[in-house]
Structure formats: C-alpha cells, structure tokens
Amino acid sequence: MYPLFSRAFAAAFAGLVTLVSPAVASTLSEADVAGGDYSGDWQNFTTVASDVTSVSGTWYGGNDYDLLALTGLSAGDSLTLTFSTIGTQGYSYSAGGNVLYKTSALQNSAWEGTTLGTVSFSYYNQSQDQSLSLTLGDDFTGTLYLQLYGTYGTLAYNLSIFSANTGSSTDTPQVTVPETTPVPLPAAGVLMMAGLGAFGALRGLRKRALRA
C-alpha cells in the first residue's frame, strides 16, 4: 500500500510545483572582459554573446575606443545607449564622443559606418543623461558592429538591447503552473477513510447514550 500511495502522491505534487523556467537575461560589464577593457582595435571587435541584453562600460580620458560586435540580433530589434557622468565634476569638466555603427565588418578604417549620434557633457548639463537609440531595419541580418569613440573626458555608458520577438529586456518573466489531473486515492486509502468515519459515528452514539 505505502509504495503505491507514495508514488501517486509524488506524481501529484510534482505536477503542482512544476514551473516553466524563464530565460535569464545576461549582463556584460567591461570589467568582465580580458584586461578589463573592450577592444579598441577596429579589426578585432569584442564579441557580445547573443544572450546578452545589457552592456556597461566607461570612457576613460581621451581617445578611449570601445568596439563591440553584437551577435544574435534580428530585424526589428532596438538598442538604447545611455551616457552619464561619474560623480560630481568641477567647473572645468567636459566629456564626449561619437557613436557609429555598421552592419558588416569594417574593411579599411575605424571610422567606417553610419553615425548614430554625438554626446557632449559639460559642468552645466552633467546631471542629465544623454541617450542614443537605434532600431534595426527589416533587411538586417547577422552582426551589428557598434563603434563607441570616446574622444575626451570620462563617461559611463549602458547599452540596453530590446528584442522585437520577446519584448523589452526589462520585462518581468512570466511563470506559469500547468493544469494537473487529480490523482485518485488508492482503494486501500478509501477503506481507511470509511473506517475512520464509522469509528467517529460509533463514538458519537456512545456519548449520547451516556448522557441519556
């Protein structure tokens, strides 16, 4: 009796607690790569894996180039690149640079590609983040080559990647519990319950007879 009942109970319990595990988003930090710095070589970009949805880095001083090859993207995906200052800066503070992109590997120089935008910070606007956004066209296939050219000053940046197929990279994953079929109680268990019920009824009759 006990092994059979244990197996039935285990099956029912497993069905109740089985969850659909959501995909786990991945974050890449500049400190995570070899040497603690993204590649500045236009012929050898740092490859960003297809499961990465957030990339963070820093422009340190002048002419700090961070070159990223973003893999696993699809048409309709979008990217938002946000720059911010680090700490509070003095009156002489200034920082900025240019961001370019290309849908194929660079062939002749570091400055090939399309300009996504320019960022420029000074003491007077240092408290306001600056963002650049890009949505990949319907003809996009393969890898996006993102060129972040910090030309002066120090800035922190964060790249958020949004999939057109699954929604925002910051969406809360949905967890579902599948429906389960009730597991019938074994025949021995039914007899046990019936016996307990009869015992309770007899005790009730005995108590009423004593009070009479």
Secondary-structure topology with pairs:
Blueprint: H1 2-17, E1 26-29, E2 46-48, E3 52-59, E4 64-70, E5 78-84, E6 94-102, E7 114-122, E8 130-135, E9 144-152, E10 155-162, H2 187-211
Query: What best-fitting shape do the alpha-carbon axes yield?
Result: globular
Q: How many E-type strands?
A: 10
| Number of separate structural domains | 2
Widest sheet, order of strands: 1-3-10-5-8
CATH class of the largest domain: Mainly Beta
* Cα-based radius of gyration, to the nearest Å: 31 Å
Uncertain runs are 4-23, 168-181
The averaged pLDDT comes out at: 79
Beta content? 25-35%
- The CATH architecture name of the largest domain reads Sandwich
Describe the sheet with the most strands: 5 strands, mixed
Fill in the CATH topology of the largest domain: Jelly Rolls
Give the terminus-to-terminus CA distance: 42 Å
DSSP summary: helix tally:
2
User: What pattern of helices and strands is seen along the backbone?
Assistant: HEEEEEEEEEEH
Structural class: alpha+beta
Write a structural description:
With 212 residues, the protein is of the alpha+beta class. The chain is 19% helix and 33% strand. The strands form 2 sheets. A 5-stranded mixed sheet has the order 1-3-10-5-8, with no helix packed on it. Strands 2-4-9-6-7 form a 5-stranded mixed sheet, with no helix packed on it. The two termini are 42 Å apart. Residues 4-23 and 168-181 have low confidence and may be disordered.
